[in-house]
Amino acid sequence: MQTVIRRFSGKGAKELFDLLEKHKTDVEELMRSVEGFVGYTLARSGDGGFSVTVCENKAGIDESVQKAKDWIAKNAGSTGVSAPEISEGSVLIHLT
């Protein structure tokens, strides 16, 4: 399994997370449509927030990153949020 963390901070990040919370049903459907989807978490932080996506393979992670980027461009472009800091890696332990 693979995982990706997308961290948003700075200008527009809080507004982005307000929008994501308002559209959480859409976001859930979008992430569940990713090939090889295993899990998704969206969390607020003091300066914005982050998401954690787990997929069966790298292709699913790449698809999730692209879908998230497209959703933000379409629905949250007016927030002025910068591109996220992205960290990817292989899952060592996954608990549910």
Account of the 3D structure:
The protein has three helices and four strands, in the order E-H-H-E-E-H-E. The chain has a four-stranded antiparallel sheet. Strand 2 (37-45) and strand 3 (48-55) form a beta hairpin. With 96 residues, it is of the alpha+beta class. The two termini are 14 Å apart. The chain is globular and about 35 Å long. The chain has helices spanning 13-22, 24-32, 58-75; strands at 2-9, 37-45, 48-55, 85-90.
Order of helices and strands: EHHEEHE
How much helicity do the residues have?
25-40%
Oligomer: single chain
Strand content: 25-35%
User: Helix/strand/pairing class, anyone?
Assistant: alpha+beta
Shape: globular
Major β-sheet profile: 4 strands, antiparallel
The radius of gyration computed from the alpha-carbon positions, rounded to a whole number of angstroms, is: 13 Å
Give start-end ranges of low-pLDDT stretches. none
The number of distinct helices, counting runs of at least 4 residues, comes to 3
Count of β-strands: 4
Average predicted confidence as pLDDT: 96
State the end-to-end distance: 14 Å
Task: Output the strand order for the largest sheet.
Answer: 2-3-1-4
